[in-house]
Design brief:
The complex is a heterotrimer of chains A (about 525), B (about 290) and C (about 325). Chain A is an alpha+beta fold and about 525 residues long. Helices cover about 30% and strands about 20% of the residues of chain A. Chain A has 16 helices and 22 strands. In chain A, the strands form seven sheets. Chain A has a five-stranded mixed β-sheet with strand order 16-15-17-13-18. In chain A, α15 packs antiparallel against α16. The radius of gyration of chain A is 25 Å and the shape is globular. Chain B contains twelve helices and no strands. Chain B starts with 11 loop residues before the first helix and ends in an 8-residue tail after the last helix. By secondary structure, chain C is mainly alpha-helical. Chain C has two domains: about 70 residues, no CATH class; about 220 residues, MetI-like (MetI-like fold, Orthogonal Bundle). Classes of the chains: A alpha+beta (about 525), B mainly alpha (about 290), C mainly alpha (about 325). Chains B and C meet through α6, α7, α10 and α12 of B and α1, α6, α7, α8 and α11 of C.
Chain lengths: ~525, ~290, ~325
């Protein structure tokens, strides 16, 4: 807080004191906070419901908090990819199905639960494999315990993303076997025992979660002694709070991003996290209204993705032509279809369809809602009436999953975004046959696609890979079930003195935040 | 001594227009209120005539433009003309107000008359019901209903209607109670008129006055509730324009351009002012007892 | 006095009971499986099973209602779907903030509005009266969420005088007041006008009464007349208005809490609605109804204390 602010606050306090005799005096501003430079104030967009990696809702804030609090084998590196975490001495993928690791000695759990051992690792992952997040652990078989600190993770099939997508992600953290069992096997807003650079010093639900540096942590000390995580759900409120000096980092909407690009606040920088994301509109190929491929193709030709980039994203997102992101092998510069409303109308006529009504489900934030309205207008222009159904995070991510209710049957159109890692095979893993009803909500499959996927993972020659991934994207076009929209970025504004670090899905890895 | 009676020549308005109307027109606030209300109603009903564009047509290249000859109030994020959307938003507001207020009025009037006129046990029971419903917090209920059944305008209106009824009912009841025992009612009853007839033909016209005034004052409340809920994203759904959704869109980009929030806010303010002035002037004119020492 | 008090309290209890009954009936008359309706689409099978057992859904409806009421009285409003904390606990953490905001908002608006109304009534049609009139209607007309937005822009971002978000550190009284200023201003602004007009209207009516004229004729000082006689009578409808208008006040706090990111009942309802966290929503509705009834009760009791004539009306 700057000097002027402190003086005014003290003035207000004085007025309050003299006006109300005998009321208990609050602390003076200078004492209420830790030394100014060492307390970082960050924003969480959602409430913290549960820290349990088997049962949480996922994303930020539970992942952010867990990475600061709990041990893991692998962390996301700053340049993409993964790095061994500060909790391990070594971790090596011996072959396609075996990962050897050795934990550092002497890492102590809080609350007197002893050292972090291989048993904890085995317990954590065995537990994940039967929890709500078992989808991430499909390839996991078990952990072979060699001794107290070392073991081997055994996979039941080759699954290269295990290091990146699984072990480094929120579901890869290690929890304390003794503590969790003592707590009854499940927990919510409090970790029964933690071991990491930070501890939770205070959690006021709906207001703030305070992290402070763990005095017993025997690894490298983090750059920031205290981190106050303020829960601010409105993105405009967050931007305003940042500009008023109450936050050191805030996520901004596309429109604010465009504004900041032209005129950035003093001493601030913009960081684009999660650039490796791809957003598209999906169609349920099993739904009776969308079973005819001509109808789907008509929809493909009717949507103007460049309008989405301009209208919904203020020109700040790159247009997408496939699931492979910019900068990666196999990225295309055009899709297999183009914006052609005349052709769209012709296709509909050919299919003998008129007066079609469809539902379009989307996440309930500003950019997605604007995108939905643009699509709605585009489809209205070819005679399809669209009803927009906005959903909040929870129901949205459950929509197409067979295990989470019946919505997957009623799904017609929806706007979706997945994120990928730096290797181009990564986006395709969600559209294979085995993912139908899990993350392949379009519910299609193709033998050629399966074949090419296996080849792509094993292939090393860049030229050949490019051909493989281009062909795979063509197959996806041909299903007619995809309309590629943008590569939606997550943008953060922060003080120039802060160098933040993010996961590929734009969660904050606060333990790795540094001074710039 | 002869007492001279001063003969006043009747002025022109007194001849042509009824007395109450003259009284009303003499009150500048009332005239202002009436003008505003008429302005809003006409602009909403004849929106297509006054509109310069189609409210749904997007013109992405021209997004977030400031006011100009083409777009009187500028354009929004998708290039839609704000002025046109405001006009059409008036339709939503008026629809909500008209349906909401009239249904509450009719139901409240009926229940209130029954409570006032009927037997004591019925009166007490109805009073209890009114008080119970009156303690329902409208916005909170609306939020809960949206959670259950998804956002929809009709849901919002239903809740608004239900929570408004007790207000009208109590007013109707009080008025009914005060004329229940007057002579002409007793006369009707002795002539054998049924309860329905007494209520509908004799009591109702005398009771409805204050209710209409309450209705006029209620319209801005109802419109503001709809705007508030749409502002939270829980009322009218896109792409329909309502003043609340315009305000919501404008709030999210308020640093980029203030015009949209202004455009969405001003009609709300004018509606509130107009109906409030109108209602108060009507009250001053029709019910001198309520007139406060002017 | 005491019999009125007793009767009034009994009436309030009855009203709360009826409200809960209405809520219960509504929940059960919505088509669909009552468990999904009560818990929403986000409940896991285990939570659903636990709920079914706890609410004895196999028993007849009236038995279920008795259990429901019993739970409410015991304070068991269910558990949050995700964090499994008791709903009562969650709401009781948030409730004080809303109450503080509401009281502060009404407090400052009454402190300014009532004297303004008085002054206008004492000098009707003067310049002060006309200005007050315009200002009153002006402030009523602007919705509170608009006021909040403009207030933030001017005072927080523009002038950097006041904070944008949060309620301040607990225990740091000065900080809490600092964070309370803008939201209370935004919520209370409309009430200034409303109260001023109400007080003015009642005062004018009272002041035209015969006994006031007599007091004047007797030579009592204006100030005595106003404060000891007129105001006491004129304030009564205003108190009732505040009690009944508590609902509108609550809506104002909902918006202020959302826009200023303050904790409170309004904000938590809004977040829970988005997250489809039904048990909390239901508990919040119940608590809000309870608050209403209590506030109207207090208002009525104050009025009956000041005006004995009211005590016979029950």
């Amino acid at each position: 807080m700057n000097k002027i602010l402190q003086t005014r606050r003290q003035l207000l306090q004085t007025i309050a004191f003299t006006g109300i005799a005998g009321v208990a005096i609050g602390k003076f501003p200078g004492i209420a906070y830790a030394a100014d430079g060492a307390t970082l104030k960050i924003q969480f967009e959602r409430e913290l419901d549960s820290l349990d990696p088997g049962y949480f809702v996922g994303g930020s804030p539970p992942c952010d908090v867990n990475w600061a609090l709990m041990p893991a084998l692998v962390h996301y590196g700053r340049d993409g990819g993964w790095i061994p975490s500060p909790h391990v001495e070594s971790i090596v993928a011996r072959d396609a199905t075996h990962i050897d690791f050795t934990l550092r000695k002497g890492m102590m759990w809080t609350n007197g639960f002893g050292e972090v051992t291989t048993e904890d690792v085995a317990y954590s992952y065995d537990r994940e494999a039967v929890s709500e997040w078992k989808g991430d652990y499909v390839a996991y078989d078990h952990v072979e315990i060699k001794d107290k600190y070392s073991g081997t993770i055994v996979l039941n099939q080759p699954f290269a993303p295990f290091m990146n997508t699984t072990l480094a992600s929120g579901t890869g953290i290690i929890i304390c076997k003794k503590a969790v069992e003592a707590a009854g096997g499940k927990f919510t807003t409090e970790q029964p025992a933690s071991c990491g650079p930070y501890l939770i010093s205070e959690h006021r639900p709906g207001q703030v979660l305070k992290l402070r540096s763990n005095p017993e942590w025997n690894g490298a000390k983090p750059a920031y002694e205290n981190i106050d995580c303020l829960f601010v759900t409105e993105s405009s409120a967050a931007a305003l709070a940042y500009e008023a000096g109450e936050l050191d980092i805030a996520k901004v909407s596309a429109d604010t991003y465009a504004r900041y690009l032209k005129d950035i606040p003093a001493n601030s920088s913009l960081t684009v996290a999660g650039a490796l994301q791809y957003m598209w509109m999906g169609m349920n190929t099993d739904h009776p209204k969308l079973k005819d491929i001509r109808v789907r193709q008509a929809i493909q030709h009717a949507v103007d993705a460049s309008a989405v980039v301009q209208g919904a994203y203020s020109g700040t997102a790159e247009q997408s032509y496939g699931v492979v992101c910019p900068g990666l092998t196999g990225r295309r510069d055009k899709a297999g279809y183009s914006y052609d409303p005349t052709k769209a109308k012709a296709l509909l006529k050919e299919a003998g369809v008129s007066g079609l009504k469809l539902t379009l489900r989307t996440l309930n934030n500003q950019e997605r809602m604007l995108t939905a309205q643009i699509i709605q207008a585009n489809l209205a222009a070819i005679g399809i009436t669209v009803e927009i159904i906005p959903l909040d995070g929870g129901p949205f991510w459950d929509m197409g999953q067979e295990k989470k209710g019946d919505t997957w049957k009623e799904l017609e159109l929806w706007i979706m975004r997945y994120s990928s890692g730096p290797d181009p095979y990564e986006p395709f893993q969600w559209f294979v046959r085995g993912q139908v009803g899990i993350w392949n909500w379009e519910r299609w499959s193709s033998d050629e696609f399966e074949d090419l996927f296996a080849k792509g993972v094993a292939e090393t020659d860049t030229g050949k890979r490019e051909a493989i991934y281009t062909r795979m994207q063509e197959i996806m076009d041909e299903t007619g079930a995809y309309v590629y929209l943008t590569h939606e970025p997550e943008v953060f504004i922060h003080k120039s003195s802060l160098s933040p670090h993010f996961s590929p899905t734009a969660e904050m890895i606060v333990g790795a935040f540094k001074e710039a | 001594m002869k007492i001279q009676k001063k003969k006043t020549k009747p002025s022109l308005p007194d001849i042509i227009l009824p007395e109450k109307l003259v009284l009303f027109l003499r009150n500048p606030m009332g005239v202002l209120g009436l003008t505003l209300v008429l302005l809003i109603i006409i602009s909403a009903v004849f929106a297509p005539l006054f509109a310069t564009h189609n409210p749904f047509t997007m013109d992405i290249a021209n997004r977030l433009a400031g006011p100009s000859f083409d777009n009187f109030l500028g354009t929004d994020q998708l290039g839609r003309d704000t002025y046109t959307r405001v006009l059409y938003g008036g339709r939503v507001a008026l629809q909500v107000a008209a349906i909401g207020v009239s249904v509450s009025l009719v139901v409240g009037l009926t229940l209130g008359m029954i409570a006032g006129y009927g037997p004591l046990w019925l009166d007490n029971m109805l009073l209890l019901l009114f008080d119970a419903i009156r303690s329902f917090p409208t916005i909170v209920l609306a939020l809960a209903a949206v959670a259950l059944l998804g956002p929809s305008l009709s849901l919002v209106m239903t809740i608004v209607i239900i929570t408004s009824i007790p207000g009208y009912a109590r007013l109707a009841r009080t008025s009914t109670l005060s004329i229940k025992n007057t002579e002409f009612i007793l006369a009707e009853q002795s002539l054998g008129a049924s309860m329905k007839r007494v209520l509908a033909i004799h009591i109702m016209p005398n009771v409805i006055g204050p209710l209409l005034i309450l209705a006029a004052m209620d319209v801005p409340v109802v419109v503001t509730i709809e705007a508030g809920l749409s502002f939270l994203g829980l009322g009218v759904q896109p792409p329909t324009a309502s003043w609340g959704t315009i305000l919501n869109e404008g709030y999210l980009i308020i640093r980029t351009t203030p015009w949209i929030v202004i455009a969405g806010g001003i009609p709300l303010i004018l509606t509130t002012l107009g109906f409030t002035f109108l209602g108060e002037s009507l009250r001053d004119v029709f019910d001198p007892r309520l007139r406060k020492g002017k | 006095m005491w019999s009125y008090l007793l009767k009034r309290i009994l009436l309030s209890v009855l009203i709360v009971f009826l409200a809960i009954l209405a809520l219960f009936i509504t929940l059960h008359s919505i088509p669909g499986d009552p468990i999904s309706i009560a818990l929403g689409p986000r409940a896991t099978p285990e939570i659903q099973a636990e709920y079914a057992a706890r609410m004895h859904l196999d028993k007849p409806l009236y038995h279920q209602f008795v259990i429901f009421i019993g739970n409410v009285i015991k304070g068991d409003l269910g558990n949050d779907l995700f964090s499994n904390r008791s709903v009562l606990l969650i709401l009781s953490e948030q409730l004080p903030y809303t109450i503080v905001l509401a009281i502060t908002a009404i407090g400052w608006s009454a402190l300014i509005g009532i004297p303004l109304g008085c002054l206008s009534a004492v000098k009707p049609n003067s310049l002060l009266d006309k200005i007050t009139g315009i200002v009153s209607v002006g402030t009523i007309a602007i919705p509170s969420f608009l006021v909040s937005i403009w207030a933030i822009l001017i005072f927080s971002v523009g002038l950097k005088w006041l904070p944008v978000i949060g309620a301040g550190e607990p225990g740091d009284f000065g900080d809490q007041i600092y964070h309370l200023i803008l939201p209370a201003f935004a919520v209370g602004l409309g009430w200034v006008g409303y109260l001023a007009r109400m007080v003015r209207a009642s005062m004018l009516e009272v002041m035209s009464e015969n006994y006031i004229r007599s007091a004047n004729a007797f030579g009592l000082k204006s100030r005595t007349i106003i404060f000891r006689y007129a105001l006491k009578v004129a304030i009564l409808p205003t108190i009732t208005l505040i009690g009944v208008g508590f609902g509108a006040l609550l809506s104002g706090t909902v918006f202020a809490e959302i826009i200023f990111s303050r904790p409170g009942i309004g904000k938590i309802i809004y977040n829970m609605v988005l997250a489809r966290n039904f048990p909390v929503i239901q508990g919040a509705v119940l608590i809000t109804i309870g608050m209403y009834v209590i506030v109207t009760l207090i208002a009525d009791l104050i009025v009956s204390w000041l005006d004995p004539r009211v005590r016979d009306t029950l």
